[in-house]
Specification:
- The protein is α/β, with parallel strands linked by helices.
- The strands form two sheets. Strands 3-10-9-8-7-6-5-4 form an eight-stranded parallel sheet.
- The chain is built from 21 helices and ten strands.
Length: 512
Amino acid sequence: MVSDTLKNRLYPSFLAILRIAIGWHFLYEGLVKLMNPAWTARPFLEGSRWIFGDLFRWMISGNTGMWLIDTINAYGLTIIGIALILGLFTRIALLSGATLLLMYYLAYPPFGGFSYGAPSEGSYLIVNKNLVELFAMILLSLTDSGWFFGLDGRRKKKIKVISKEPEAEETDDKTGNSRRELIKALTGIPVLALFGGAFFKNLTEAGPDAVSGATIKVDYKQIKDLKGRLPSGKMGDLTISRMIMGCNLIGGWSHARDLIYSDTLFRAYNNERKIIETFYLAEQAGINTVFMVTQYYPTFNKYKNIYNSKMQSICQAMLPDKDFFSDINQAIASKPDAIYIQGGEGDRYANAGKFDMLKKAIDYIKQHGFQAGVGAHSLETIKSCEREGIDADFYVKTFHHDKYWSAHPIENRVEYSVIGPGSPDHNRFHENMWDLFPLSTIEYMKSVNKPWFAFKVLAAGAIQPKDGFRYAFENGADFIVVGMFDFQVVENVNTATEVLGSLGPRERKWFT
């Protein structure tokens, strides 16, 4: 059993530690917002769908209301954090902080699907960190936590005088003037100094932690520019937006011909934090599926945990000559929603006539409970799969027209030449065209009764989105896969929505 003496010593210390820890959290959240001029609470409040959602949207309907809410949030969190660390006006700070947390909780309660789109570090059932911290602040407000290792303790003498307790007043005079009590009261000052050093070191060296919902810096102003809802289709039991996000720009595969710096530039721009921001913006804009490679699943899964996201993924898998199923096993371990054989690999095995190996790969994926697809640059790969009875659930096939200035001359186009960059024969392939015979693709795919994901629809940036999207959808694609930077997301969604809304009858019927 803990003795009463020890309890009396530990009790104030732990109350002070809890108070300072909460203050540290509030101060960090507040400063991150203050130092990001683009931050606004608008998307958070606009996205609320519970019973108070209409109230929150009304509150931010005018510029004045929005400015006031942003100011209260950023400065309020900062001031509350400083007050709690210093132990100054502690009860007021605690009740103010609890009120803010209550508002956050009511905007996105963690039940009934109302927390969709809200920043979080995981999935919750009714109780989340906001509620826990709220109760902790209410509990602290019922104690004299600011008197322990805080500046409120310097006002203790006056409080005792008001309560007419002369003996306590005399005791307080003695202890309050002691050096020891003064040092205790000023505990928050070195804590603030420690916080400041850690905060600015983190800011300058690494930037804010991408896992913190408060630090995700999406250009939310783009969301209001959406002009419609992106249509969706079905593939098995999956509902998939007609346009999905590709992964090349995320991984730094730019297909920029002879611009040798582009891959490095793309990777420098799309750091982990930017990738998470892009996923979030895409999902808010209506894109619900992304093509993914195994090496980027840690970032993708981090995004899903932060936002409790429902974003789906289709993972591409390689087929190495040694340990044939190794990459498929990595894909399975990543827990995607479907898996397909990467296009270059599909071409490689089909060109070599190794259809038995392609069949083994598709069967292996299906045995593990996933829909399985085959990717291809060459139409001959799709033809071979259909002819050889390879039972793929869907196809991922390049598709774009050849009416752009750098398109490979038709007399130089050779089937299966689009295996990859670096061909020694400049006239054979120089990474500027991915569907060598688009008219043949249109004609053959009319007879294929499986979902078709068209990729490279913009020929790696050589074709304008409105032109490329329309060509793909009008000529038979069920879904288009588009690599995009964050600043392109809303414009691409608007373009795809406009194109799909104005389509006439298609010769190739929609698969779903």
